Amino acid sequence: MAMRPLVVLALAVALAGVALGGGAAEGAGECGRSSPDRMALRMAPCISAADEPDSAPSSSCCSAVHTIGKSPSCLCAVMLSGTAKMAGIKPEVAITIPKRCNMADRPVGYKCGDYTLP
């Protein structure tokens, strides 16, 4: 559990970077007008689920994944974002969260970089 303060610190640093202009250019991207890095902050409840493949995601994590997962390209961009990387998120584990949340409408087979949604 000593990693949790470091993850929170990494998310705070990332948020500061986004707030200071490190976000996406104006216009719509994978996540609409929000950058994937900013959207990644909404995934904070998923920290432990994205680190441990056998852990059950919390209801708040599943809620965030369901909301962001309405756009598979946004969900993918969030999981591969700089914020997720700085927080130590393992993409190969994070990609399994929609399935572990029993998300019925998840995009099974969707290619996300080197990963495929199960």
UniProtKB/TrEMBL annotation:
Keyword 4Fe-4S found: no
InterPro entries noted in UniProt: Bifun_inhib/LTP/seed_sf, Bifunc_inhib/LTP/seed_store, DIR1-like
Domain Bifunctional inhibitor/plant lipid transfer protein/seed storage helical: 31-112
Transmembrane listed as a keyword: no
GO biological process: systemic acquired resistance
Region forming the signal peptide: 1-21
Superkingdom as given in the UniProt entry: Eukaryota
Matching Pfam families: LTP_2
SUPFAM superfamilies: Bifunctional inhibitor/lipid-transfer protein/seed storage 2S albumin
Keywords from the named record: Signal
GO MF annotation list: fatty acid binding
CDD domains with a match to the protein in the record: AAI_LTSS (cd00010)
Name this protein carries in UniProt: Bifunctional inhibitor/plant lipid transfer protein/seed storage helical domain-containing protein
Native species: Aegilops tauschii subsp. strangulata (Goatgrass)
Upper classification of the organism: Eukaryota, Viridiplantae, Streptophyta, Embryophyta, Tracheophyta
